Amino acid sequence: MSYISSERKKMLFESWLNEEPDSLLWLQTKKLPEVYLSFLSKDQYNKEVNLFSFTSLSKEHLFSLGLTNPTFRNRKKKRSENEVRDRALEDKFLDVVDNMPWSEKFSFLSGAVEQMYHGNVNSIFVYGNPETGKSYEVIKKLDELDANYKLYKGNVVKGVDDLFRILYNNREDKILVFDDADKVLTLDPNIWKTVLENKKEREITYVDVRRFRNKNMEDVEPIFTFTSGIIFISNNPKFDDAIASRSLVMNMKLSNDEAIAKVESTLDDFLPDVEMSIKKEALEYAKEISNGVKNMGYRTVETIIMARNISPDNWKKQAIWLISSR
């Protein structure tokens, strides 16, 4: 099909609205793919409007009238009925978020890290599905800035004492990055409430000073001033409200298509020791199998490359085996 202008699509949509007496009722009560079928059957030229464009035009029309469709709200979680008074306006905001390009999200993340480097942000919380390069983007920006930072991965922080020592040893104008931060976030919410306060100097106190005196921590003071920044990176969207309210929280969840596009955009830097022809071949195969993989991204492409290196004659089948075994 040749290019169809947005003006042409809007004209066809508005004609349908005017000619179909039940169109507004359908848009408010039925699922849009179902309404789209009725739209297609109304006029042979309506096929020039695809489902994506029909959905966008439908939402724009409903929102302009202060209306919405209950199916738009199926994705919402952890929200009581009285938190939002204007449902249509809320759906309009969420539609903006849903259509935000992945590149814009990661550009903003990079800018937030730079603001932390300059002392304007105390805490950043980044979460989303695996393999999308969240950690890579943060570390890359810190390295570009030549920032004074420390990286702590996974469960390296065993308990409150470990956390307190880390905070004390890095208390002055550093950036602490907790990657796979799920455990460290649960250690003591009261410490985090103080650490993440929105002011330059925060006074940190060990949870129980008397207990502290009886532990082997002679090199650590039980009360100290903290001026460093904190970055949490997680695959888990569940986190304490006290932490969320004190941090810049960014949902970096990407679809498989977006994740592949991100890998492709960084292919020169990704696995620099691997030949570009091999990386491109692996990326093309990742695109081919994308619809059958739950989380597509950097590690999946790397797994495909490993399978190719290990089994050159049968690597596609072996790659699927490795990916499904994770």
Can you put this structure into words, describing what you see?
The longest helix has 16 residues, at 102-117. The chain is globular and about 80 Å long. The chain contains 16 helices and 7 strands. It has a 5-stranded parallel β-sheet with strand order 2-3-6-1-7. It has a two-stranded antiparallel ribbon with strand order 4-5. The model has no long low-confidence stretch (mean pLDDT 87). It has 326 residues and is of the alpha/beta class. It has helices at residues 6-19, 23-29, 32-42, 51-64, 87-98, 102-117, 134-144, 160-169, 182-185, 189-195, 209-213, 241-244, 256-265, 276-289, 298-310, 315-324; strands at 123-127, 149-153, 175-179, 202-205, 223-226, 229-234, 248-251. Helix 13 (256-265) runs antiparallel to helix 14 and helix 15 (298-310) crosses helix 16. It folds into 3 domains: 6-98, no CATH class; 102-251, 3-Layer(aba) Sandwich (Rossmann fold), CATH 3.40.50; 256-324, no CATH class. It is 50% helix and 10% strand.
CATH class of the largest domain: Alpha Beta
**Succession of helices and strands:** HHHHHHEHEHEHHEHEEHEHHHH
Shape: globular
CATH superfamily of the largest domain: P-loop containing nucleotide triphosphate hydrolases
SSE layout:
Layout: H1 6-19, H2 23-29, H3 32-42, H4 51-64, H5 87-98, H6 102-117, E1 123-127, H7 134-144, E2 149-153, H8 160-169, E3 175-179, H9 182-185, H10 189-195, E4 202-205, H11 209-213, E5 223-226, E6 229-234, H12 241-244, E7 248-251, H13 256-265, H14 276-289, H15 298-310, H16 315-324
Parallel strand pairs: 1-6, 1-7, 2-3, 3-6
Antiparallel strand pairs: 4-5
Helix pairs in contact: 4-5, 6-7, 13-14, 14-15, 15-16
